[in-house]
Amino acid sequence: xxxxxxxxxxxxxxxxxxxxxxxxxxPVPSVRYVGIxxxxxNNAVTGVYQDYKGFMWFTTYDGLNRYDGRSFTIFRNRIGDxxxxxxxxxxxxxxxxxHNLWVGGRNGLSVYHPxxxxxxxxxxxxxxxxxxxxxxxxxxxxxxxGRGDMLCGDGGTGLLVFAKGDSVGRQVKLASGPVNxxxxxxxxxxxxxxxSADRGECGTLSLLxxxxxxxxxx
Length: 218
Known about the structure:
Elements: H1 4-8, E1 13-19, E2 28-34, E3 45-50, E4 56-60, E5 63-67, E6 72-75, E7 90-95, E8 101-105, E9 108-113, E10 118-120, E11 123-125, E12 133-134, E13 139-144, E14 150-154, E15 158-162, E16 168-171, E17 183-189, H2 196-199, E18 204-209, E19 213-217
Parallel strand pairs: 11-16
Antiparallel strand pairs: 1-2, 3-4, 4-5, 5-6, 7-8, 8-9, 9-10, 11-12, 13-14, 14-15, 15-16, 17-18, 18-19
């Protein structure tokens, strides 16, 4: 997900709904302003996501926000509480097949488990092996592919792939270059213009790697 709000300087959310317009058969969108005066934690919104229940989730520079159409619930880091959000500056969000929410930000990766209302921190295994390490570098992209694997674009260790249902991922090593690299963007693509998730399969991944340009991997 692109950090579009940081670049464009948006200062509020525009919540779009549908309403009928006089003299028109098709509904037209109506736009309603929602900001910090409505309970949003911060006006710098970096990501937007709608879950399977219809809740809207917003990543911001000051916490994760859940919006039910009337009010916000804010999730922040609590010092000394390992079940809270890892850091307050968060950039991206996606869900897995079990509707857990994977949230990336400046302090790494957190997974929110709605069934118990708590967060956990995934780990990854380095290419050379060894003890799994918690994901603590800046995470700017997170997505799910057509197989149900979670893809994480990490600012310190590169592309991390978490197999379906696994909380320990693997660090993907590039064909050339250093073991650790910075991924600025991850894109799933295919020749027919749909994403691999749309087609229920895993297509080619395009990575934007800082200092090297685009890299493609299967």
